[in-house]
């Protein structure tokens, strides 16, 4: 196999010049020797040997400032190595930045020809390629507009269209695919795959490890200008992400989101690890819909009662995507002195592509504001692109069905329930704000109601109907021992409505309702030592469908009508 | 398309031969850059190339008014032609040097992202100016003929003078363009320098008004005339245009200066251009 790119002991030194030395005073002082000119040198590339075979796709990863772009610039010949040798065989086209090689005052058409001549392509050849470029860039309407009026997406499209269609032997791409709409980016990857298939060499710098893993034959990880690792994409990226995770956790106190590590107490969270729930392999890059299993240790100095462990998932810009804790699922747990293993299965991840920081925390059930330990950005997970055709920040599994004629099912009165859009869903934040001890319907109720509640039409405003399964959040204070549910049946019926009540997953009572007058159902509760938030689930065993009785159009299966829930 | 093996080493010396070779390899690029400069120069203005004619005409109006009407200077016969014959070439020098000097810094984006021989930037800027100059000069010549100016056989030497002029400007342009990358003060110095140079060159006055006196032990007349290539060049244009003869002796001195300057300019540019991308 022939070598397309060869780097031999390449070093590149940059000097960081301090602006002060550039002033007249600085220069005058330097001239008379009163003040040395400060040049801080650093090796952007330090002794790199690299061979890239013709037809190979090489991905370059590394932190910002590690020298990725410098390598591309050396290959593109825009800078010269300080020592060593760079050789490349064939026509090189570098897509180093948006609008590189474009003159803002010239039109798209003129810029296409100008760019061709940078590559030494004959004018006649460019004329032949011209139509394909314009078509690929989807810029037919704007091709005679000066490119200074182009949007960044249009710039990228034009640049990429030229890069792909001039058939370079070596294509250098630096992170430019970050802009542009999803469909064009998809088109670019398709085109790149074609270029790759046609046996050309591609060097590709990206911050998206998933994309690099998919696309490259080999991956080069550089750190501080040196080769840290070079080889099989899976292995190198795995190592890289592991390293990123360690570095972020080491420097998390200076993290951009100003999440500071809290605590310093009797309990610490340590050694977190994420693995793919389906394979059990340690992994930090996922595709949407995959499930991640977190494992970490609690290191406790003493026996602690009522510990709650939680995990928050934030997008790289700090937006909270999800927060979960044992407080609403397992309830407070006791922790023995020494090491306790915690496992949390998250998923299937409904997250769109991007990187996400996971923060972990442990706090006493009594007081969330005095945590044992909060470990911000304990680890970073990368989520890659989902299947083509989906976009957005979240991935929601969707099932589509289109029928041209009404089916028999839809004509039957007892059809599958159709959820009404006005259904109350999603508690917006029940975990960190103290929930009420009395939950009156119509008052702040949607904050504390989970899934499965309907507004009750033609009923007083303080009444809600439940679906066959309804969730609510409520607080039990010290000294309280009963749950009182003011409820009745929503419609007349001969038989009684049976309902089960469970608290944080534990079944505590079953009751029956007979009439349409509200009655108080009193359910005894175990007393607690610290205030606790309960997830209350009401499951109706015999849901009612209103038109069972009188052929109304409403087909929602209803549970019970509720006026208030309170803890006494 | 045949693939080219490019082997590079940071050799301390780079040959000027390389530039000539690159000019052939990148002929199309040079052409495109020149076309680009010409297009961009007048893009957005209504008169376009008309400015290349109108600008010297307006300046001529100003100089005629100041030096032939307001100031007490011996009137010169056919002053408008006397002035234009030298002013149009001077405006070429001025524009070519300014645009060549800025060609590298104003194309920073290009230099950082794309490889091509960097010499092409100042060279194309100067060539664009040069084409503009030839066209403007031709128009003035055609206008002058009916007035009985520029009809002598010495006009045949004008193209030769233009070539010499181009070589001189290329050398100076390459020199200033490369220095300007590292010392941005160059632009400001050159701005003043050009103004001084304009007054020290016999453009709006005749050489004969310069006193033949001694100054600091030197003959001012000789000093200004011989060592200032622009003085020789504009005088050549003017003499051929107005009086039909060509002062050969000074032209030879200017030729030596121009070729020497081109050599130095190319050498320095080649040497410094390796670091352009980092500096910009």
Task: Name its key features.
heterodimer; A: 568 residues; alpha+beta; Rossmann fold; Coagulation Factor XIII, Chain A, domain 1; Jelly Rolls; 6-stranded mixed beta sheet; 29 strands; B: 280 residues; mainly alpha; two-stranded antiparallel ribbon; 12 helices; globular
In words, what does this structure look like?
The complex is a heterodimer of chains A (about 575) and B (about 280). Chain A has 11 helices and 29 strands. Chain A has helices spanning about 25-30, 70-75, 110-120, 125-135, 150-165, 180-195, 210-215, 235-250, 410, 445-450, 545-550; strands spanning about 5-15, 40-55, 55-60, 85-90, 90-95, 170-175, 200-205, 220-225, 225-230, 260-265, 265-275, 285, 290-300, 305-315, 320-325, 335, 340-345, 355-365, 375-385, 440, 455, 465, 470-475, 480-490, 495-505, 505-515, 520-525, 530-540, 560-565. In chain A, the strands form 6 sheets. In chain A, strands 10, 12, 14, 15, 16, 18 and 19 form a 7-stranded mixed beta sheet that branches. The N and C termini of chain A lie far apart (about 80 Å). Residues about 250-260 and about 410-430 of chain A have low confidence and may be disordered. Chain B is globular. Chain B has one domain. Chain B has a two-stranded antiparallel ribbon. Chain B is mostly helical and about 280 residues long. In chain B, strand 2 and strand 3 (about 220) form a beta hairpin. Chain B has helices at about 15-25, 25-40, 50-70, 80-105, 110-115, 120-145, 160-180, 185-200, 220-225, 230-245, 250-275, 275-280; strands at about 5-10, 215, 220. The interface between A and B is large, with 39 and 32 residues.
Q: What would you report as the Rg of chain A, rounded to the nearest angstrom?
A: 32 Å
Mean pLDDT of chain A: 77
So, the CATH homologous superfamily of the largest domain in chain A? P-loop containing nucleotide triphosphate hydrolases
Intertermini distance of chain A: 80 Å
Give the helix tally of chain A: 11
Principal-axes shape call of chain A = elongated
Rg calc of chain B: 20 Å
Regions of chain A with pLDDT < 50 over 5+ consecutive residues? 252-259, 411-432
**Beta-strand percentage of chain B?**
under 5%
Query: What structural category do the secondary elements of chain A indicate?
Result: alpha+beta
End-to-end Cα distance of chain B, whole Å, is 33 Å
Name of the level-1 CATH class of the largest domain in chain A:
Alpha Beta
Assembly level: heterodimer
Helix content of chain A: 10-25%
Helical fraction of chain B: over 70%
Structural class of chain B: mainly alpha
């Amino acid at each position: 196999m022939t070598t397309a790119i060869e780097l031999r002991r390449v070093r590149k030194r940059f000097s960081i010049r301090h602006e002060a030395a550039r002033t007249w005073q600085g220069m005058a002082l330097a001239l008379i020797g009163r003040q040395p000119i400060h040049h801080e040198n650093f090796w952007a590339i330090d002794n790199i040997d690299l061979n890239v075979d013709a037809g190979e796709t090489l991905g370059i990863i590394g932190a910002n400032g590690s020298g990725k772009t410098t390598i591309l610039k050396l290959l593109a010949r825009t800078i010269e190595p300080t020592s060593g040798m760079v050789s490349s065989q064939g026509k090189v086209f570098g897509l180093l930045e948006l609008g590189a090689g474009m003159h803002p005052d010239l039109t798209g058409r003129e810029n296409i020809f100008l760019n061709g001549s940078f590559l030494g392509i004959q004018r006649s050849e460019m004329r032949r390629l011209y139509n394909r470029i314009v078509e690929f860039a989807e810029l037919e309407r704007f091709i005679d507009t000066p490119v200074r009026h182009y949007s960044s997406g249009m710039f990228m499209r034009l640049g990429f269209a030229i890069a792909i269609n001039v058939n370079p032997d070596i294509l250098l791409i630096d992170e430019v695919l970050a802009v542009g709409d999803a469909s064009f980016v998809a088109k670019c990857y398709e085109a790149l795959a074609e270029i790759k298939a046609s046996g050309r060499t591609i060097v590709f710098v990206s911050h998206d490890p998933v994309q690099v893993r998919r696309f490259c034959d080999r991956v080069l990880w550089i750190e501080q200008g040196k080769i840290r690792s070079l080889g099989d994409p899976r292995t190198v990226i795995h190592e890289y992400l592991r390293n990123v995770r360690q570095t972020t956790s080491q420097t998390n106190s200076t993290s951009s989101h100003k999440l500071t590590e809290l605590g310093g107490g009797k309990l610490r969270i340590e050694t977190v690890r994420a693995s793919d729930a389906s394979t059990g392999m340690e992994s930090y890059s996922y595709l949407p819909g995959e499930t991640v299993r977190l494992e970490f240790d609690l290191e406790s100095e003493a026996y602690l009662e009522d510990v709650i462990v939680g995990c928050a998932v934030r997008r790289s810009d700090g937006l909270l995507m999800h927060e979960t804790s044992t407080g609403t699922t397992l309830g407070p747990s006791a922790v023995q002195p020494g090491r306790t293993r915690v496992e949390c299965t998250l998923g299937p991840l409904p997250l769109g592509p991007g990187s996400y920081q996971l923060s972990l925390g442990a706090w006493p059930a009594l007081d969330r504001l005095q945590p044992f330990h909060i470990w911000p950005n304990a680890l970073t997970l990368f989520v890659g692109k989902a299947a083509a055709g989906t976009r957005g920040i979240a991935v929601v599994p969707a099932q589509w069905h289109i029928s041209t004629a009404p089916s028999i099912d839809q004509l039957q009165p007892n059809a599958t329930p159709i959820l009404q859009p006005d259904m109350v869903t999603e508690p917006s934040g029940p975990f960190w704000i103290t929930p009420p001890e009395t939950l009156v319907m119509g008052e702040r109720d949607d904050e504390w109601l989970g899934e499965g509640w309907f507004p009750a039409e033609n009923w007083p405003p303080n009444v809600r109907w439940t679906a066959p399964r309804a969730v609510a959040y409520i607080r039990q204070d010290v000294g309280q021992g009963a749950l009182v549910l003011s409820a009745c049946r929503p419609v007349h019926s001969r038989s009684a409505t049976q309902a089960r009540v469970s608290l944080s997953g534990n079944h505590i009572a079953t009751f029956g309702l007979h009439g349409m007058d509200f009655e108080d159902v009193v359910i005894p509760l175990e007393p607690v030592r610290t205030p606790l938030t309960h997830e209350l689930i009401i499951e109706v065993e015999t849901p009612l469908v209103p038109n069972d009785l009188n052929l109304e159009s409403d087909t929602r299966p209803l549970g019970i009508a509720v006026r208030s829930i309170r803890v006494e | 398309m045949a693939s080219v093996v490019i082997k590079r080493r940071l050799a301390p010396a780079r040959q000027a031969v390389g530039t000539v070779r690159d000019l052939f390899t990148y002929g199309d690029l040079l052409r495109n850059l020149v076309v680009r400069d010409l297009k961009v120069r007048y893009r957005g203005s209504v008169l376009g190339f008309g400015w290349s004619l109108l600008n010297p005409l307006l300046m001529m109006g100003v100089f005629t008014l100041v030096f032939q009407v307001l100031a007490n200077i011996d009137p010169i016969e056919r002053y408008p032609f006397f002035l234009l014959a030298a002013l149009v070439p001077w405006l070429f020098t001025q524009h070519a040097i300014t645009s060549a000097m800025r060609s590298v810094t104003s194309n920073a984006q290009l230099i950082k992202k794309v490889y091509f021989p960097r010499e092409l930037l100042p060279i194309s800027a100067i060539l664009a100016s040069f084409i503009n100059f030839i066209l403007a000069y031709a128009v003035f010549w055609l206008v002058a003929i009916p007035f009985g100016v520029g009809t002598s056989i010495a006009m045949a030497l004008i193209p030769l003078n233009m070539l010499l002029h181009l070589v001189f400007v290329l050398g100076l342009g390459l020199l200033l363009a490369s220095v300007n990358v590292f010392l941005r003060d160059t632009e400001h110095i050159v701005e003043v320098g050009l103004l001084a140079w304009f007054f020290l060159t016999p453009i709006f006055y005749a050489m004969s008004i310069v006193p033949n006196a001694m100054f600091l032990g030197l003959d001012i007349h000789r000093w200004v005339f011989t060592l200032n290539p622009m003085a020789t060049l504009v005088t050549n244009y003017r003499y051929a245009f107005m009086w039909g003869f060509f002062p050969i002796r000074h032209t030879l001195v200017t030729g030596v200066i121009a070729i020497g300057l081109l050599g130095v300019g190319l050498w320095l540019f080649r040497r410094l251009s390796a670091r352009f991308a980092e500096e910009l």
